[in-house]
Design brief:
CATH topology: Endonuclease III, domain 1
Keywords: DNA damage, DNA repair, Hydrolase, Metal-binding, Zinc
Structural class: mainly alpha
Order of helices and strands: HHHHHHHHEHHEH
Number of helices: 11
Number of strands: 2
Strand content: under 5%
Radius of gyration: 17 Å
Shape: globular
EC number: 3.2.2.20
CATH architecture: Orthogonal Bundle
Helix content: 55-70%
Function: Hydrolysis of the deoxyribose N-glycosidic bond to excise 3-methyladenine from the damaged DNA polymer formed by alkylation lesions.
Number of domains: 1
Catalytic activity: Hydrolysis of alkylated DNA, releasing 3-methyladenine
Oligomer: single chain
Distance between the termini: 33 Å
GO molecular function, one term: metal ion binding
């Protein structure tokens, strides 16, 4: 069995996510928006809880189309609060609507949402070299700066820890531990992206 990061349980869904998604540079606006909203939904819960409901979230939130979500009414929010296939937390559900509105404002003034997110790392992935899971931070000065700016821009559930989790999962940083079999694979992807 390949060596993985220590946070990955013996669960096929989680292993697939770690092996094929986590840490790989992501540039698609809609995917970055979805990921941000799901990271917010995860607050106080395990990522596996959200990961296993990801398809349910996509269905419930119109495939995370910000233009549709920004127009959600109170009736729609109540419908989502009653949806047993997602986490029925009213504040988290409302945060997705707030985030959609903030996303649309970012689109008006930035090149794209992707450009906005990647600007926090000067459009280049940070390659870390963590020897073990205990060395990997839960937040950094950069994620604190990102959190402060995103809150100013109207985003919700974007504390420094959530922002860092977003940076990790979207490949803004490579936080696979050095001995993880994905570490070198992700570094190769990052170096290819630098010359795209």
């Amino acid at each position: 069995m390949p060596r993985r990061c220590g946070w990955v349980p013996e669960d096929k869904v989680y292993m697939d996510y770690h092996d094929n998604e986590w840490g790989r540079p992501m540039y698609n606006d809609r995917q970055l928006f979805e990921l941000l909203c799901l990271e917010g939904a995860q607050a106080g819960l395990s990522w596996l809880t959200i990961l296993k409901r990801r398809d349910n979230y996509r269905e419930a939130f119109d495939q995370f189309d910000p233009e549709i979500i920004a127009g959600y009414t109170d009736e729609k929010i109540e419908e989502l609060v009653k949806n047993e296939k997602i986490i029925r937390n009213r504040l988290k559900i409302r945060s997705v609507v707030s985030n959609a509105k903030a996303y649309l404002e970012i689109e008006k003034r930035e090149e794209s949402f992707s450009s906005y997110i990647w600007s926090f790392v000067d459009h280049e992935s940070i390659i870390n070299r963590w020897p073990s899971l205990s060395d990997v931070p839960t937040q950094t000065e950069l994620s604190r700066e990102m959190s402060t700016q995103m809150k100013k821009d109207g985003f919700k559930f974007v504390g420094p820890t959530i922002c860092y989790a977003h940076m990790q999962s979207a490949g803004l940083v490579n936080d696979h531990i050095v001995e993880c079999f994905c570490y070198k694979k992700v570094n190769k992807l990052i170096r290819k992206e630098e010359y795209r």
